[in-house]
Amino acid sequence: FAFGSYRLVYAAIGHYNFWSTAWIPFYILFLLKTIREPRIRNAVFAGIFLVLAMLSDMMFGVFLVMLTTIILAFALFGRDRKVAGGRRALLKRLFLLAAVAGVLYLPLLVPIMGEMFGGYELAGWGDAEKLSVDLLGFVTPTALHPLGGDWAETLRQTREGTARFRDVNTVFLGWAGLALAIIGAVRYRRRLAAWITSAIVFGVLSLGPLLQINGRSVFDLDGLAVNVPLPFIILHYVPVVKANRVANR
Questions:
Q1: End-to-end Cα distance, the chain
Q2: Which residues cross the membrane (predicted)?
Q3: Domain-wise residue ranges, the chain
Q4: pTM of the model
Q5: CA 1 to CA 173: how far, in whole Å?
Q6: CA 160 to chain CA centroid, nearest Å
Q7: I need a labelling partner for 13 at 20 to 30 A (CA). Which of 36, 152, 169, 201 fits?
């Protein structure tokens, strides 16, 4: 996590808000403890770390809400239900979590809401298609990797539109890491159901509105040019969530 391609590439191009992901695992840790343990302080810490993540970048909050929804769904309705004190007690702890986060984030939330309802929102898709993950990007080393080519040359080609992928590849998972993840998912699929689901959901959403393979989003099917639409299109019509037009983040 600390040395993944996502963090290193964004650090290299100066997008330090997206490099600042350190708060995310702390939020997830205390969210799980909030679900599985009765201590109130876990909810307080989870709320604090959620705000710290959102202060790094507001969209982290949206992503974490989506992840929280998946984790809660499995905690409440999955086979291995681990909810300390029952659902009513959990609801109180989650309310405390949300209250802590809301109060701490309020000074920033007020002007944000003012901008949202003040006509600042831009129409259209922006560069959602260009700034999406190429399917081969998951298994292709980034240009910062010793086997990934020349970094400066890759940046130049990306700006010119002549690079292999439409945007700088940030999602290389590492061959060993990916192999271990697949082995673990198969071996412990019931225990890791929430994490497997999360990986699939966010992986598919990161592909953007149209499937891209090796820099192409238009495919020839016996003379018929076609696109493959993906679930990210749905997010474009969801308030607040649609503000994120860069799927590869």
A1: 15
A2: 12-32, 39-55, 61-78, 90-110, 168-186, 193-211, 223-241
A3: 5-116, 135-243
A4: 0.87
A5: 10
A6: 27
A7: 201
